[in-house]
Amino acid sequence: MSTDTTARPEPGTATGALLSARDLRVVFPGRRGAPPARAVDGVDLDIGAGEIVALVGESGCGKTTLARSLLGLVRPTSGTVAFDGRPLAYSSGALKSYRKRAQLVLQDPSGSLNPRHTVYDAVAEGLRIHGYAGDERAAVAEALARAGLRPPERFFLRYPHELSGGQRQRVVIAGALVLEPELIVADEPVASLDASVRGEILALLLRLRDELGLSALVVTHDLGLAWNIADRVAVMYLGRVVETGPVESVLTNPRHPYTRALLSVLPESEGTPVVLTGEPPDPSRIPSGCRFHARCQVLASGAAEAVADRCRGEDLPVLPGGGAGAVACHWVGREKAD
């Protein structure tokens, strides 16, 4: 297993986690008598100071709900979220203060920006909400410049429809940066952008980490993106993290069958792509045992027959939130024991 991380810093090791979640659960009531949906079903997750963590998984696995609960936008059913060592409080005043330190960057910049607001007003909105008492014009200009829109004054009076997709995403990032947060949660930050622009936005996020010490949780379905930007990766399936660790370790030597399947369909992957069969994740119908067992290619092939009963009937523990790699899989556990 490759664990060489010399090309990357070791963020968060001195001061501990900036943001941490413990046994986080978010349950939504079912509609018209349907069972409740366990969107997040027991997650531990740490993000260190100056660290970029990629949260990866298929659509419907719960990663966006998890991200919103970490920001206080969705109140967890149980479990705790702590920021800078203090449990998150849910009063309006406490949340307002917290969201100055932790900002959300949404997937679609066209939907994030009011078409009737200029770029200046879009970026200045956060300052006005939080009662900023300094030089608003200078703060907006600095945020736009940091987001790569230079000279910033040239963009002040433009409207979103006058910008390219990459420029709109930079405006959204500038709107988050203007409050000088310590953490950004970016939900599919480049999914709606052309391939030629994706690299520019990813390079921007890395530069912001290096220059400002910014921490980030990047929510994505793209393991290739995780490889290019993250220090650590957490792979999520049906409400729970099933594999986690340093990005080089997880993506060069994946252990969980689900992670292997996700990696197998990348263009640069060798071998035959794994086509997952069975029903896609349904948070209102979480199976007993390993939640992936009904779609597991290893179990279906017979290779995991020795642990098949455990796969179908024995639940797996919540993985630790940070540090060394970990995997929730009975088959991998047996291989390691052997």
Automatic annotation (TrEMBL):
Q: Where's the ABC transporter domain?
A: 19-263
Q: Which GO terms describe its biological process?
A: peptide transport; transmembrane transport
Q: Which PROSITE patterns match?
A: ABC_TRANSPORTER_1, ABC_TRANSPORTER_2
Is the keyword Transport assigned to this protein?
yes
Instruction: State the Gene Ontology terms under molecular function.
Output: ATP binding; ATP hydrolysis activity
Q: Which UniProt keywords apply?
A: ATP-binding, Nucleotide-binding, Transport
Q: So which domain of life are we looking at? A: Bacteria
Q: Does the keyword Amino-acid biosynthesis apply?
A: no
**CDD domains, per the entry:** ABC_NikE_OppD_transporters
Q: Which InterPro entries match?
A: AAA+_ATPase, ABC_transp_ATP-bind, ABC_transporter-like_ATP-bd, ABC_transporter-like_CS, Oligopep_ABC_C, P-loop_NTPase
Q: Which Pfam families match?
A: ABC_tran, oligo_HPY
Which positions are tagged coiled coil?
Answer: none
Protein family according to the UniProt entry = Belongs to the ABC transporter superfamily.
Q: Which PANTHER family match?
A: D,D-DIPEPTIDE TRANSPORT ATP-BINDING PROTEIN DDPF-RELATED, TRANSPORT ATP-BINDING PROTEIN
Instruction: Quote the protein name from its UniProt record.
Output: ABC transporter ATP-binding protein
Tell me which species this is from: Streptomyces cinereoruber
